[in-house]
Amino acid sequence: MSFLNHFFIILGLIAASAFFSCAEIALASSRKIRLQQMAENGDTNAVQVLALQQQSGNFFTVIQVALNAIAIMGGILGEQALSPYVADFLTQLFGQVEWINKASFLTSFVLVTSLFIVFADLMPKRLAMTYPEQVAVSIVKPILFFLKVLKPVVLMYDGIATILFNVLKIKTNREDAITFDDVSAMVDAGTASGALHKEEQHLIENVFELDIRTVSFAMTSREHVIFLRVQDDEETLKQKIISYPHSRFLVCDDVIDAVLGYVESKDILKRTLNHLPISLNKELQVQSVLAIPDTLTLSELLAHFKITNQDLAFVLNEYALVVGIVTLNDVMKTLMGDLVNSFVEEQIVKRDDNSWLIDGVTPIEDVRRALAISAFPNETYYETIAGFMMYVLKKIPKRTDYVEYAGYKFEVVDIDNYRIDQLLVSKLLS
Predict the structure, then answer these.
(1) Whole-model pTM?
(2) Other residues' Cβ atoms within 10 Å of the Cβ of residue 154
(3) Sign of the dihedral defined by the CA atoms of residues 291, 296, 297, 303, in that order
């Protein structure tokens, strides 16, 4: 066989090896979500790739059989094709010496191996890693053809591998379930690349946190709830409406824990403008209000709002005491964050590069994000930075009490009726 024939055979082997190397990486690294999107858009090849990923054992068997066969043939033919020519070239340079045969063999081996490494391995694999889905849908049909042709060989080797895995009790099924950590990682990568804005990142993260955060995170707490009593006279009602311009007010029987319903402030204003008498017992219609337990998550609360067609609820604890009220708007503020208001910025104010003023009711997730702290200790026991202080100090904090954690000093600077109103957070300088 002439040198030219050997040369073309080696080129063919390199091309075949490049194809299988490219296929191996592309089919293994193709993302299921992207393939499903392509399939929904009518790409039948994407459907075949998804099906092939479900039978990865057969696919990898074909790849390994092909690559090993090509490598062996390449080694044999490469040495046979190049060694005589390399030997002649070295003989012309150095004459007939005893090391010519060894040198020609080594040179041929290095040259052929280098060609396979660069053109049959590195380049196709890098290409497949860069464009996995595009490459996968392009080569899936030839791979399916080889699966049919080599089916007996595939069944034999794959069967042996399966038996060994079963003996060793090793799972071979790929887990395709997408977790919150997976989504969070993709969102972080999208933000880092500029594909997502910071506000959009927070929005996506907040959607997942609706299943974690309870209603207490978004509600107006008991001590800040302004309610009307059925016993209030007309002048008292007017003063409350003027002093607290809310759209709706809870109506209670003397105390907040005896909720009767709610009234629209506009109804009171209408009667006032028309010089009509105002009484919660007679003239004004008290509408029913939704009662929910404080153990509900925000996503469960949204479901309740949807079922009952209401957007206001009062929150009860296990002792049937009112701990706060929550509205649909409160949930949306929690979800949308900086896209609709400056809620986080108002709760976390950066004084300088090394200090922050933080509201006591700031969610621990927001503090963690603002200070780049990976985690707080036992976060399941509290939801706010005030809860963190109480958990660590094991008491009701007072002004000047502080905690040092993760390179920061958390100091209570303002107390309002036993409630931690504000903290000063300072970075500890080494």
Answers:
(1) 0.48
(2) 21
(3) negative
